[in-house]
Amino acid sequence: MLLQMNHGDACPFDLSHIDFKIFSEYLATKKKQQHQGNRHTQNWSNTLSRATYDGCQSALMHLYRICGVQVDKKFAKELSVFMGAIKRMVRNVVVILFIFTPSNMNVID
Question: Which of 46, 50, 59, 108 is deepest in the core (most CB within 10 A)?
Answer without folding.
Answer: 50
